[in-house]
Amino acid sequence: MARQEMAGALQIVDSGMRQPVTAYLGLGANLGDARGALDFAMQQLGQTPGLDVTACSAYYRTSPIESSGPDYINAVAQVVTRLTAPQLLNCLHAIEAQVGRVRPYRNAPRTLDLDILLYGEGRIASPALTIPHPRMGARAFVLVPLAEIAPQCVALMQLDGVREQAIERLL
User: Fold this and answer.
1) Residues recognised as catalytic
2) Would you put residue 8 in left (φ > 0), alpha (ψ -120 to 50) or beta?
3) Which residue in 6, 10, 75, 155 is deepest, having the highest Cβ count within 10 Å?
4) 114: β partners
């Protein structure tokens, strides 16, 4: 598969059939219209060739962790994709760029943050990508919405470990 960007739109050119993989994506934002940014991201994910959105959690409000700025709006989406993990990451970065995501420093407030949490049973450790996401097990804003749509992916002990973190389910 090759990635092509044309007029701000991302296109995936499939050069062969790949087995579909179920992946889980973390979505978050705390600058500007955070809820609107998550809605936009879900819309863009749904229009990405080689990727089908199969579930999305409710939206949750959380305080920043190791960061500053306003509260975050977070969610987790389940997707089935034929994209490789690096191709999926490139798609996520392209969607972030469309809403003006900049990375001035680690854990800076953001207009949109999209992360690959899990990619099938895959394990990746590279400078650009680590799967499973290295901090997901310590974050209520990941574990609670993930448990909502994929309870088999979250152990009760993990949820117990983050129960002190404030998290509010939004309507």
Assistant:
1) 101, 110, 113, 115
2) left
3) 75
4) 27
pLDDT in tens, 36-79: 999 999 999 999 999 999 999 999 999 988 777 899 999 999 99
Domains by residue range for the chain, with CATH: 18-169 (3.30.70.560)
Closest CA to 48 of 90, 100, 103, 102: 90
Backbone phi and psi for residue 149, each to the nearest 5 degrees, phi listed first: -100, -20
* Neighbouring residues of 77: CB distance < 8 A, sequence distance ≥ 6: 24, 25, 27, 42, 45, 53, 55, 56, 57, 149
DSSP 8-state secondary structure symbol assigned to residue 153: G
pTM value? 0.87
Q: How many CB atoms lie within 10 A of CB 103?
A: 11
> Is the separation of the CB atoms in 71 and 62 below 8 Å?
yes
Candidates 35, 78, 76, 36; CA nearest to 53 is: 78
- Say if residue 132 is preceded by a cis peptide, omega within 30 of 0: yes
Residue 12: closest CA among 132, 104, 92: 92
